[in-house]
Specification:
Mean pLDDT: 84
Oligomer: single chain
CATH topology of the largest domain: Elongation Factor Tu (Ef-tu), domain 3
Distance between the termini: 46 Å
CATH superfamily of the largest domain: Efflux pump adaptor protein, beta barrel domain
Low-confidence stretches: 382-387
Structural class: alpha+beta
Shape: elongated
Helix content: 25-40%
Order of helices and strands: HEEEEEEHHEEEEEHEEEEEEEEEEH
Number of helices: 5
CATH architecture of the largest domain: Beta Barrel
Number of domains: 4
Radius of gyration: 44 Å
Number of strands: 21
Amino acid sequence: MVAAAAFGLCGCKKAAPVPPPPPIVQVMDVTTTNVPLETEFIGQLDSPQNIEIRARVEAFVQEMPFVEGTNVVQGQLLFKLDDAPYKEKLAAAKGSLGEAEAALGKYKADVERLKPLADKHAVPKQDLDNALASVDVGEASVFSAKARVEAAQLELSYCTNSAPTNGLIGAKQVSIGELVGKGSPTLMATMSTLDPIWIYCNVSEDRYLVAKSETSRTGQAIEDLVVTLILAGGSEHPQKGQIVFIDRAVDVKTGTIRIRGQFPNPGEVLRPGMFARMKVDIGTRTNSILVPERAVTELQGKNFVWVIGPDNKAEQRKVTVGQQFGESLLVLENLKAGERIVVEGVQKVRDGAVVQPMTAAQVAEMVKQAEGAPKPAKEGETKHGKE
């Protein structure tokens, strides 16, 4: 009985649970490759010259002998304002000039007549002094009258507005018979030069520093890089361009620096105001490490990968990532060729835990074998075709 009781007590104890097998994870070997370094900036197109045609005198619009939305040439008449009041003003100014010149002539004649008489004390010297002063006043009057004539001529010239350069002119902002130039210069039209075309981009400080570092490493200047323009529909502009301007300072409000690219624009297809992307070819980075984006875990602004050691133990390692290439990320620091990293099953890995690493081919073979294995009969089904 004692032996039976002891045997019964031992039989009540449960067997120790079998530990689960190590989780299966898909891994890949880290290798190096050469990757082209490119970066893209979003920007807006603009013209090198946006010229506003404004009325600089107060007058009524008389003529507008141009077609909106067409190219105009330098010197072509764009707007003709009513110049009758300014012609009259010019005529009056010329009349005043004539009077001043006539008076000056008389004053000079008086001096010529009085000077020999004053030398002989035939007339008081004061008369000669008065005549000489009159000449100075007359010369000043002539000078003022000439200035008024030039001002009247300038105002008269403002009644004719011609194209200052070749370019594309936009819509008319005024109508025939409309009073313009009253109080402030009235905008009548805007014209732009379109070949070449500019694009302005605001580049973040860190992206600018990365581009600067890479160009320094390759011995290139940013101004010499090949630049491609990608339009809104995704198509590329056939003409390559270059960066022609980098602003002197970073905008403290946005943390960006302004750069400008220039592209040939034959046919004037590109217009100011269009949005586009500027792709900059920085060069090629040799011996680079690319890993799938899904293998990188981001935590609190830092990036990590799971590295599998020779003993199949997992190690979470912090890495520095760079540019993205499709579905891969460029790893800049803390990972080297020959190491193994987890690309699938990251959620099953724990730091220091043992895993069962398998390559993509091995995982595919395992799935294939699992799909080909006979499925167990469901409850209620017959095993051999009979109950």
